[in-house]
Amino acid sequence: MRFNILVFIGLLISGISYGQKQSENVKEGDIFTINSSSNLKFHSLKLPKLNMLVKQGERPNYKKLDGMEVEVISIENTNKGTFAVLKRSNDENFFIHRKTIKANLDKAFNYGELK
Q1: Is the dihedral of CA 40, 94, 72, 30 positive or negative?
Q2: First vs last Cα of the chain: how many Å apart?
Q3: Closest listed residue to residue 11, CA positions, set 23, 3, 67, 80
Q4: pLDDT (tens digit, 9 = 90+) per residue, 40-91?
Q5: Residue 47 CB coordination number (10 Å)
Q6: In what order do the strands lie in the sheet with 31-33?
Q7: Which of 74, 70, 73 is closest to 42 using CA atoms?
Q8: Which of 19-42 are b and which e, b meaning 16 or more Cβ less than 10 Å from the residue's Cβ?
Q9: pTM above 0.90, yes or no
């Protein structure tokens, strides 16, 4: 019985430490690729709402983000997780008035949105 509990606690600790190492290894200047799922709903990227894009004069389209290479500008550690500010690697805007976007690195690696 004690052995089972110790094994369970060991697996739990190793799983938690493995999940945290992915976002800790990210540093400024790293380049990632944005991968979207089939429904194009991003869980970790903080994107502008579609109605705001329409008001700014752009046709709302999140499909163009799929396969886009992004570079990490800065990293912020908060209580809610590790956030990174991303810009396109070719120095163009994501949308008309958006040069950078934020991403929650913990969620991005879990959902497979950044590779």
Answers
A1: positive
A2: 41
A3: 3
A4: 678 889 988 888 888 888 887 788 888 899 999 999 988 888 999 999 999 8
A5: 17
A6: 31-33, 69-78, 81-88, 100-104, 45-46
A7: 70
A8: eeeebeebeeeeebebbbeeeeeb
A9: no
